[in-house]
Amino acid sequence: MTFQESIRTCFSKYVDFSGRASRSEYWWFFLFLVIIYVAGALFSDFIYYLLVLGTFLPSLAVAVRRLHDTDRSGWWLLIGFIPLIGGIILIVLLAQEGKGGVDAQLTGT
Q1: Residues of the chain under the 70 pLDDT cut
Q2: Are 101 and 20 a contacting pair, CB within 8 Å?
Q3: What are the transmembrane regions (predicted)?
Q4: End-to-end alpha carbon distance in the chain
Q5: I need a labelling partner for 99 at 20 to 30 A (CA). Which of 25, 42, 85, 107 fits?
Q6: How far is CA 18 from CA 14, 27, 36, 63, 88, in A?
Q7: Distance between CA 51 and CA 53 in Å, rounded?
C-alpha cells in the first residue's frame, strides 16, 4: 500500500474498528500523523490540538484494525498506558506480521 492509499483508506474508514489493516497501511498513516503534527505545532498550539482532535478516531481505528490483523483484540491498545514498557510492547505488537490477514495475502503465505 502506498502513502496516499494509506491516508485515503484510513480516512475513509474513519471510525471502522472492524476488519484488518496491513503493516504498510498503519505505518504510512503513522508517518503522515507525525508529519502533520510537527507541521501543526510549528504554526501554533491551537492548530496542533485541532489536528490531534481531528485525527484521534482514525488513528485509534487503524491501530485496532492493525491489532486485529495480528489476531489480537483492540483492547491491547490499553497496554500502552503502562509506563515505559507498555509503549514498547505496543510497538512490537503493531510491527508484527499479520496472521492470515492482509499481510499474508500480499506475501502469498
Answers
A1: 100-109
A2: yes
A3: 26-43, 48-68, 74-95
A4: 17
A5: 85
A6: 11, 18, 26, 11, 24
A7: 5
